[in-house]
Amino acid sequence: MSGGIMRTKSWWSGSDSRLLEAALGLAAVLVGVFQVLIPALGVVGVIDPMNTREIEAATTTRVADTVTDAVAGHGMTLTGTHQADLVFTGPDLGQRLLLALPQIIDGLLLLLILAVLLQMARTLRGGDVFVPMNARRLSVVGLTVLVQTTLAPVLLAFTTQILVSGAPMAEQIPFSATFTGEYVLLALLILALGEVFRRGTKLRADTEGLV
Fold this sequence. Notes:
59% of the residues lie in helices and 11% in strands. The protein is α+β, with helices and mostly antiparallel strands. It has one domain (14-48, 94-210).
């Protein structure tokens, strides 16, 4: 065989690429609107803000354990047993920001993942996803998933502690961050796949250079 390497016809068509890109684009729009834009509008008071935070209480609480935050001038209600709801009546700007921040950060990280996946999908237009840039993109996706998995629980616990700081119910709400092992494993698998892509594209480039 001379003059290059014979390539088999790809089963992936241009229509498939456009459909995948449209699906990823739609997912990015939905995430941007519902996980970033709407919570942000609530923070600045354009729409009704988030006023509830699901927490894990250290001890069983009464069905309605209501206290008043004398410093901020707003009421907080802790309702439930082990899985409880911390509800704010008329949260101020700082409280609205702390309530929405974990969701906004999570949404921004998810948008980054979708944007990188969209860039990868565009390489399928040529029928070949095994390009060097996609190896780096997979590494970005894997690292972002890992950051998202570890940052989200810590940020949620940290902002909760700030929200209840100085309140009588603070002792009932311990600092608690729950990590999901499945997502950590997923991140590691994506990083491993990125390394496979990197070695595969390097090996193919070396092989083509010998022909």
